């Protein structure tokens, strides 16, 4: 749920950036990093459940 929210927010920020009037330029990078962290955690949990260590 949180991942979907972040992805839609990132899409909105990218659309605003395309127009050229970003309020917070660092926000896009921050969103990308947060999404990557969540995906990394999800993959780690999958590996643990599988027994891969």
Total domains, how many? 1
| Approximate shape | elongated
Number of strands: 0
* Beta-strand residue percentage: under 5%
Helix and strand composition category: mainly alpha
Span between N and C termini?
26 Å
Radius of gyration (CA) equals 15 Å
Mean pLDDT comes to: 89
Number of contiguous helices: 2
Helix content: over 70%
Question: What does this entry look like structurally?
Answer:
The longest helix is centred in the C-terminal third of the chain and has 25 residues, at 26-50. The model has no long low-confidence stretch (mean pLDDT 89). The protein has one domain (2-50). The protein has helices at 2-19, 26-50. It has 53 residues and is an all-alpha fold. Helices cover 81% and strands 0% of the residues. The chain contains two helices and no strands. α1 packs antiparallel against α2 (26-50). One of its GO terms (cellular component) is ribonucleoprotein complex. This is 50S ribosomal protein L29. Belongs to the universal ribosomal protein uL29 family. InterPro entries: Ribosomal_uL29, Ribosomal_uL29_CS, Ribosomal_uL29_sf.
């Amino acid at each position: 749920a949180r991942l979907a929210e972040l992805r839609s927010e990132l899409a909105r920020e990218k659309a605003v950036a395309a127009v050229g009037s970003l309020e917070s330029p660092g926000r896009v990078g921050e969103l990308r990093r947060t999404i990557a962290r969540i995906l990394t955690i999800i993959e780690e949990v999958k590996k643990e459940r599988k027994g891969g260590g």
